[in-house]
Amino acid sequence: MASNKNKFGFDISLGRQINYDANNRNIAEYLFDKEPSMRRCIECGGCSATCTTAGFTTFSLRELMILIKRGETDEVYMNLKKCMLCGKCTLVCPRGVNTRNIIVLAKKAFQKSDEYAI
Amino acid sequence: MIIDGKKAVWKDYQKEIADDRYYYVRSCVRQNFFPGSETAFLKIMREELNKDVYEHPCHTSCSGIGYHSDIVPVETTMTVVARQFAIMTEAGYENLMPSCITSFGLYTEILDTWHHFPEVEEKIRKQLKKATGREFDKPKNLAHASDVIFKFRKEIGAKAKYKLINKNTGEPLKVVDHIGCHYAKMFPSKGIGGAEYPYVLSGMIEEWGGQVIDYPERRHCCGFGFRQYLVQANRGFSIACSKEKFESMKPFKPDMIITNCPGCPMFLDRWQYVINEMEGKRYGQNGEGIPVFTYEEVAGLVLGYDPWDLGLQMHQTDCEPVLDKIGIDYSPEDKYNLETVSAFSKSLV
To answer: Could you give the residue ranges of the DSSP H alpha helices within B152-251?
Structure first.
């Protein structure tokens, strides 16, 4: 049905509530299964602070990990592509999370899912 | 929890509701939204329950809509409310029964303010005396009109011509109850069931044969608010709230929604049309909307009043699916026949 938004002079605002019932958390479940160290992440942001890519782009591994866990993955895949896989984040992680592997696996997961099939 | 324990806890969530001799204050907006509701309420109270309900033509808006929109200062609102009390006192009544949830919340808020700050009450008394020459006593009992219908739900149920039961399947209708935010969210002790477990509408639904639906966003606001609706550009926030509720209740396949606030039925009803226009979504069964009723309309239907006398033709979302499910006898061609409707209204004068 054609949108009639202009007729009313306003639009339906998007909620900022995290809807765990409706969100698809398959990617997160896949990563937890394949790289269990992801469960140890405390979202300290050490990975983002040391990230070379983050110096030049809006890439933030901390943010992407949170979005993946929430199931809000619409923009995650395009952002993951910015990573150069240098591995500095893995070296600084205080919890020993294999962040580099998480990025590699996440890319695979997105490519496997129908939504992001190439 | 053992049943006795539950009953003991539940006692804390009850309120005192007067038996008779009510001073009724109408809502300023309801008569435009669903004009049959207050008329039906007065008919039920006076003719079915034989109660003394007094209303005065000179009472005004409580000004709550202006107060909550940050337009009317609180002292002005208090003085307007004091005038309503003065009219009640002059008529010899002590039990205040507002039709509107926001009025109910506002009266509760003002009485509580005066309780904690007696000097404010004195100031308002002086202002009212100076402005109008009136004096007032505070109401001894303050109950919303839905509280009173809740109190007499069994009497109404005993006289019921119809039950909230699907006549084809024999199953109870699935009913969503929606309580106005100002009913008990500000002063939980003033509402039946408090803020978390308001029972005022659920009690009516259960008594009249329906099944109450519990869904995740049951206590969410309908989105009326005041500021976010009055400014057109902000209405996206308002409709987002209603949409949140519809999305949440849809999987439970509700047959109807019952509300006890002036704004909630208006917005839950009208926004269904707007959402459908914007996104092509409907939340009822068979591609229809979910009909939204006020509790007076439902009480009237249960008692066998004509749906068009109750003003159901004023609803944006068609009510006929529910009428057909219950098996209510109505005439589709009279839906917009003003002569029959005005005869009902005149019968009360």
So the answer is: 153-158, 181-184, 200-207, 227-230, 235-249
